[in-house]
Write a structure and sequence with these properties.
- This protein has three domains: 267 residues, ANL, N-terminal domain (Rossmann fold); 67 residues, Luciferase, domain 3, CATH 2.30.38.10; 179 residues, ANL, C-terminal domain (GMP Synthetase, Chain A, domain 3, 2-Layer Sandwich).
- Helices cover 40% and strands 21% of the residues.
- The chain is built from 22 helices and 27 strands.
- The protein has a five-stranded parallel sheet, sandwiched between helices. Strands 23-24-25-27-26 form a five-stranded mixed sheet, with helices on both faces. It has a four-stranded mixed sheet with strand order 2-1-11-10, with helices on both faces.
- Strand 16 and strand 17 form a beta hairpin.
- Helix 2 packs across helix 3.
- It is globular and about 80 Å long.
Amino acid sequence: MSIDIGTCDTFPKLLVHHARVRGALPAIREKDLGIWQTWTWQQFADEVRALACGLAAQGFKRGDHLALVGDNRPRIYAAMCAAQCLGGIPVPMYQDAAAAEMAFPIQNAEIAYAVAEDQEQVDKLLEILPQCPTLKHIYYDEPRGMRHYAQAQLASYDTLLELGRETRARDPEFLEVEIAKGSGGDTAAMFFTSGTTGTPKGVVLTHHALIDRAKVAADLEGLGERDVVLAYLPPAWIGQNVFSYAQPFVTGYCICCPESAETVMTDMREIGPTYYFAPPRVLEALLTQVSIRMEDASSLKRRLYKAFMGIAQRVGGALLDGKPVGIADRLLYRLGDLLVYGPLRNVLGMSRVRVAYTAGEAIGPDLFRFYRSIGINLKQLYGSTETSVFVCIQPDGQVKADTVGPAVPGVELKFTPQRELLIRSPGLFKEYYKNAQATAEAKDHEGWFHTGDAGYFDPDGHLKIIDRVKDVGKLVDGTLFAPKYLENKLKFFSYIKEAVAFGDGRDQVCAFINFDFEAVANWAEKRGIAYTGYTDLASREAVLSLVRECIERVNADLAEEPEIANSQIRRFLILHKELDADDGELTRTRKVRRAFIADRYRALLDALYGGKDSVHVEMQVKYEDGRTGMVAADLAIRDAKVYSPDAAKRAA
């Protein structure tokens, strides 16, 4: 049943619609103590109504902000909608952020109300209370560990819910009147950017922007109430929020919240999502798990896997796109599907996936082709927080490894002479909160959003993003240098977790490498290589050789691309520790903060470009429990082979 977004122009109005039209159907599921609990649309709507009345009784009013800190849970999403029912503005925050990182958003938005999932999140909020005097109400969901907390700001979620039920019983019309006051132009939510280049900015999005773009994308893919989605990424990230809030409110499909990060794979296999989203880092991690399992498999299974994956790489994508494939290859692929691809999709929890997206950053072409080759309809989309996510989507049958597809209906695209992409869309953000200067810099008087991304259109009109404009540079000989492009090619290898490439204004490209500890440890153990931890393993000559092989395979690929052939990586070192968001080296969405890393590890960079064979490093690090310590190590620096185009063909 199609929804009229002209009438249902806010999320609370959409919720009322679903409760009336499909009230008995599942809206959201949560796995608790190993058992899936289901909330119907009617039950979810009743929870939202009671919660909204409770907030109103506590003084929450139109225009107020509500902070939300926690994993994907029904109550987090109920609180989001409850705030919107009153004309308030939910502000999701990253649940893995340190307390100090939460202070700025709360101060910036002058937040007085917060919903926290559990004791861990409550402790963070209490820690920053001295810096956040506006925060007067903190409601916690999980009571475990909270018995002896007596702060005046604290109350349980259940207490708030009960207050709301009593309030609604006294005035049953109040909330319906408040919901009716809302309009599509009202602010629906505020999402803080990840702060890749500096202080996070609050991106203000309206109901109309989010609902319009969610509906356009849902219509393109034929999404409906029978679809199922796993909500496993941070709710504070706009991508997860659109897939687990905006689109289910538009389509009526059910979202499922996993029990924990550790059970995601098991939970995926149990629920069998039909619609799936994963940033490249998640797809890389899944492929690493597959590679490790194959390392442990018998020689027969390894041979079968290698043989049938060769067939899949050759014809799998063509079959998925409906292109002509010979009968012999079709039969071989069908046999491979029985023996390899089908079981592999089941292991990954993707047996029922009808549409899968990847976005957030560029994906390595080989990684992308792998998933499509085994029959998973993985497609790339392009968007950002400021555009309500959906800007470009690859249509079925028009999927390419190196583009993000054409613009979706309603979106206009153009480039500046400097190749910066500009976007005009109904999904554009309203403003950066309390930051008129940044708003004016990002959105011009004609309504074009300046993305900061560099790219171009291919002959079919598909958008190709190569890097951030500020990151695209040149070597001293004029060769194009696109660091993210190089890093993504490196990260396809299961042994490499992160890479940071340098070269702008220099005579050659060098790189810092983080290997995937689980994958390399498994590889080392099979070869009898003893080690005491990450730093020790990073110093082993065998591991350096393993990483060098990966780099040289990337160099062979780069040699065949004339514009960037001279951007081959000539020197590298393996960092002594994993890059960490807690140390400021990554954003909370796991994006590399290249400038920060270059500054923090200036001595290592100087050694790479200074021709040294090794460098000593001593660095303070922060552990997960908040403690700090010193790490010291001698890092080896190695050269990698570079190729001419002819030599690259021979190497392949």
